[in-house]
Amino acid sequence: MDERLRFIVACHGEDETISELCRRFGISRTCGYTWLERYDKLGPAGLLDRPPIAKQHPAKTPESVVDAIVVARKAHPTWGPKKLRAWLMERDPRAWPAPSVIGSILKTHGLVRPPRRRPHVPRSHDGVERGPGPNDVWCTDFKGHFAVGDKTRCHPLTISDEASRYLLKCESLVAPRHDLVVPHFEMAFREFGLPTAIRSDNGAPFASAAPGGLSKLSVWWIRLGIRPLRITPGEPQQNGVHERMHRTLKAEATKPAASNLIEQQRVFDRFRAEFNDERPHEALDLKPPTKVYTVSRRAMPETPREPEYADGEVRRCDSGGRVMLRGLRVELGSVLANAHLVLRTIADGREELRYGPVLLGWVDRTSGEPRFELA
Prior knowledge:
CATH superfamily of the largest domain: Ribonuclease H-like superfamily/Ribonuclease H
CATH topology of the largest domain: Nucleotidyltransferase, domain 5
Number of helices: 10
Largest sheet: 6 strands, mixed
């Protein structure tokens, strides 16, 4: 800076030519004229170093592409660069930049929120049965309830197919009650067929304190030929695919809440259509669920039937859920009223009692008096 100011002073106060002054200061004539021009326009500030700026950017993303990316992000504010790119490619054949470039564009336009710091949780290695194909395992739960505009509490019942991520049902209910849930499961079974199993948490109406954790709902599933699966209490990650969908549902369909339950259901219906038909899923190679899911070949029967057993001794509960097990009277509760159970010998003096695939407990005859132990 000092050298450049001395050059400017010399140019204005000495009789030497520009060429002679440039030779004396060890600079080119082009550099000398540049210093003079900048000083005339900006004063001493014009003599400061400037970072080199390219006048042309041959690899710059076209503005029309940037605008399309920004519009797509605003329409889908929870989608990341990979999903946005897959969605845009599906609808527009032009060349789209890599996800990393799309991420930079979103950041430049203030469309990326800083990540929230979360405590590190060790990864679980517990064995949880997964559904490799559509309808092998459905997942169900109630997303946390919230108030709509008229102060009514909304309890969203959700049902999804684990393998394809297809959201089968998302229904606004006023309470998580058996009588409100059954019609929606029945509609799902009639529309999509029967799954092999349904995974839920341990809350009502999916489970209860009855033997085997059975509830009226899960007993109905067994009578339809569906195996109930329950996660370990306090381990929601065992239903992680469904919980991840709930996070998206909360962000895109509950904030803000609608004015009433009817309007909220319309919001859920629109969310479900977009989630299934448009939203790319990384676990599905960035395809939407509708391109992976197929309906089940198992149609819902007109009349549920008690499970059948290939071996063991079949025992029938009475209308109060009581059963006689070779001289031992056991009360199982009204959930198992008129149920057909099976008693199988597993060791000398030990027998297991099951309802369909669910273990209810054991009969111990090794001591003087036989006794029943709950599972």
